């Protein structure tokens, strides 16, 4: 039920702080320790490499998840687009663990990979919003996203839930391996929840930005470095699928290798600046595109902001910025689609779950 909301997408964007709190509650025991299936813990500890398989937005969550697992749990991770995996199957490690990320748990491209790797005898963990789904039933283990039903075709709360659960999984594995961590995922996710709330309260600001930057444009580019780049590809997917604006996410450092040729007078360029490590680099990229006429909109994080930034997100742990910086991008896509009279919840040519290969 949409309740008072005009669209499911807006409702689902707004639900994200609650989903964060639900995840904290579900993955914590009475002693405030992480609560995870012992078998999953063992599988994570035993594997020598993780292969994340997913499509669309879930693939984008996987890109961020790779960073969590590599940085915190020190296990090498490869992230693969499900539909491409079979054509160029990588050489597998000795003890691979396959992690399927899927909101619906019904994506046929991912299922095809699951069938194949099961034939090879490899273990699989599915991270899904639908525990009884095909990918969940057919894998050895399941982690639930607890995001509640996601109805809008554009995935929003499932994406942030996927990243939250991946962060918890990474920390749990790190602890099981006896690694020393100063990162407390539950405390940091609680801060993320509050930051999300602050952002969903700023809809009018984002609506204005959508009007100023995207009302008539045919295309739009998102640029970022490091984690911000992964959120850029997600922000671009959101915008293209519901507003039909041709949108792409690019790594800031790649601009000079070709993309900058596309910038002309008035081209909207949305830049993310939430990582101190790459702040200098992305700021130079913004200057480069502005010098070529781009209409640049910078979304930065508190502490790294500059006076000319269009939008500043509250400060959260650097590892978790993607869960927060995506919120204004989701809202930007929503309002851009709305202003163009697009069918926000049911964009043309798309289905909520893609059950054909
Ligand atoms: O249900 P899944 O997470 O497996 O779906 C994967 C993609 O089809 C899905 O994320 C798609 O890209 C969304 N429409 C993006 O908003």
From TrEMBL:
* Broad class of enzyme this protein falls into: transferase
What this chain does, per the entry, is described as: Catalyzes the first step in hexosamine metabolism, converting fructose-6P into glucosamine-6P using glutamine as a nitrogen source.
Q: What is its EC number?
A: 2.6.1.16
The catalytic site is made up of 352 (for fru-6p isomerization activity)
The record's keywords, sorted A to Z, are:
Aminotransferase, Cytoplasm, Glutamine amidotransferase, Repeat, Transferase
- An example Gene Ontology molecular-function term: glutamine-fructose-6-phosphate transaminase (isomerizing) activity
The name under which this protein is listed is Glutamine--fructose-6-phosphate aminotransferase [isomerizing]
What is this enzyme's catalytic activity, as reactions?
A: D-fructose 6-phosphate + L-glutamine = D-glucosamine 6-phosphate + L-glutamate
Q: Which residues of the full protein are shown?
A: 244 to 600 of 600
Q: Where in the cell is it found?
A: Cytoplasm
Subunit structure and binding partners: Homodimer.
In this protein, which residues make up the domain named SIS? 40-179, 205-347
